[in-house]
Amino acid sequence: MLLLTDPKDKETVLAVYLNQRWWPVEDVVKTADPSRDGLISVQTFRERIVLFVLNYIIFGMLEGSSANDAFFLPHSATECAKILWRNGEAVAFYSVKMKGSLCDGTTSQCYMLPVLDTIFVRRKYRRCGLGMKMLHDFCQSFMAEDALGISCPISAAMYQVCQKFLQTYPEEQKRLWEVEAPGDWSQRVNIWLKIQMESSPSGKAEVGSCMETTQTTKPR
Fold first, then answer.
1. Fewer CB within 10 Å, N- or C-terminus of the chain?
2. What distance in Å separates the CA atoms of residue 163 and residue 167, rounded to the nearest whole number?
3. 118 with 83: CB under 8 angstroms?
C-alpha cells in the first residue's frame, strides 16, 4: 500500500493510494452504505484496508501520540476483528485471538481461551461508551466459554473501561482475565479481583500476593 506523507513530517500520512487514485485518510474510513452501522465483522478485502488504516495509520501515526497508548502491529489476513461503524464512518475496532489459534509463527502453542487482543476508539469518539459496547459484544460473542481473556498488559484507560463494565455486568466478573499467551492458569489474573485489590488500603502490595495465588490456583 502506498502512503503519501507530509514532506516536513514523515509520520503524518496525507493520503492512501487505492484503486488507481489517491484518497484522503478520512475518506478511506467512510462509507455511503447505510447498512454499515454498529459492530460488523471484518470479512472483505476493503474491510481489511479500513482495519489497517484505523490501526496502523490513524492510531499508529496520527492519534497515538500519548505515552500511555500501546502500539498495535498490523493484523494478519486471518485476524478475527470487528469494526464499529457510526454515521457512515469507522470509528473503532477490536480484534480477537480465537481459542485454538496459534500464538505466533515460531511455536506450536495455541490460545487456550478467546482473547481480546487489540481495541481502539478514535480520539474524537472517546468517552461515549464505545469501549464498553465493544467489550460487551466480545463477551456476548462467546457465551459458551467459562473464561475470556484480555491481552496483557492492559492500559490504564482500558482498566477504567473494564471496571465500569464489570460493575454494570457483575455476571462477567468471574469470566474476564488478563492473560499472557497462550493463557493457561499460570498465565492469567482475574481482572475484577485485581481491580478490587488495587483499590484496597494495602494497594499494590496485596495485588502482587493475590496475583501469585490466582495464577497457580484454578478457581472453583
1. C
2. 6
3. no
Residue 174 CA to residue 171 CA, distance in Å, equals: 7
Distance CA 144, CA 139 (A): 10
Cα–Cα dist 197/203, whole Å: 6
Q: Read off the C-alpha cell for 71.
A: 502500539
How does 44-76 read in b/e, with b if 16+ C-beta sit within 10 Å?
eeebbbbbbbbbbbbbbbbbbeeeeebebeebe
What pLDDT, in 10s, does the model give residues 23-45?
Answer: 998 999 999 998 899 999 999 98
Percent of the chain with pLDDT over 90: 60
3-state class (DSSP) for residue 75: coil
| Ordered strands of the 148-151 beta sheet | 38-41, 80-86, 89-97, 115-121, 148-151, 176-179, 188-190
Is the distance from CB of 180 to CB of 154 less than 8 angstroms? no
Domain 2-216 belongs to what topology?
Aminopeptidase (3.40.630)
pLDDT digits (tens, 9 = 90+) for 186-204: 999 999 999 999 876 555 5
